[in-house]
Amino acid sequence: MTWQYQDLIDEFYLDVEKYKNEYYSHDEAINITFNEFYSENIVDEMERALIYILYAELSLQNPRIYNKTKQVLLHELESIDLNRIRSQIIDGQLNQEQFEEISIRKDEVIKKLKLMPIDSCNQARWYYTEIRNAVSNFYLELVTQNMDSDEIIDQVLSRYKRGCDRTPSVKITVYITLAEILLKNNQTISKEIIDEISGFKMDSINEELSLDELTDLSRAVKNVLE
Q1: Of 6, 127, 172, 216, which one has the fewest beta carbons inside 10 Å?
Q2: Which pLDDT score, from 0 to 100, does residue 173 have?
């Protein structure tokens, strides 16, 4: 299949949103989409360039990036052959304006990627603030449906089960966020929630959270258990 410039961009974005709507994290969604679009056998330079640019641009929305991923992305972006892409204008895959756009986007994403903080964990996952916000927003949706605390707990744990099963940092963050919200709204916290929080070992997180995130999580755990 030969991609047209805008068609590839639109389809990439659509797939990312599809996975996010299935409750994958932003990072998981862009990684799955990249793996579906990218192949080492790609000979179309415009296609290869756009896939890397889109992946890098969306990765910039994360708070950090794994160092090896950062280096691979920089290498691939810097090796984009703009002369080959310019020749594809003749075939109608893109026009001159789009060619200039791809050149600008390439330079911009390289510049921003170089400044992006390093993540010590190489696993695609929910980031700390991202999952905190997601749980809080989902709670507000459930409240409008007049659910009691047991129903809310079941719904939240069900929606984010995949993330909880993947990494301990996501699991404890989901549980602690839910507990904080229930306490704030004078709702009952189940024994399951309390047992998970009280039995949590901070050293099980490894390198999934930053120092600031670890500090905030420790504070939240202490406050809830008190």
Answers
A1: 6
A2: 97
Question: Cα(55)–Cα(195) distance, rounded to whole angstroms?
Answer: 39
pLDDT given at position 97: 97
Do the Cβ atoms of 121 and 66 come closer than 8 Å? yes
Residue 1, pLDDT score: 66
The stretches in the chain having pLDDT less than 70 are: 1
For the chain, percent of residues with pLDDT exceeding 90 = 92
Q: What are the boundaries of each domain within the chain?
A: 5-119, 128-225
pTM of the model: 0.94
**Angle 93-72-68 (CA atoms, 0-180°, nearest 5)?**
150
Angstrom distance (rounded) from CA 148 to CA 54: 42
Rounded to an integer, what distance in angstroms lies between the CA atom of residue 112 and that of residue 196?
Answer: 39
Q: Distance (Å, rounded) from C-alpha 86 to C-alpha 100?
A: 9
For 28, which DSSP code?
Answer: H
Q: Give the chain's end-to-end CA distance (angstroms, integer).
A: 60
CB 185 within 8 A of CB 146: no
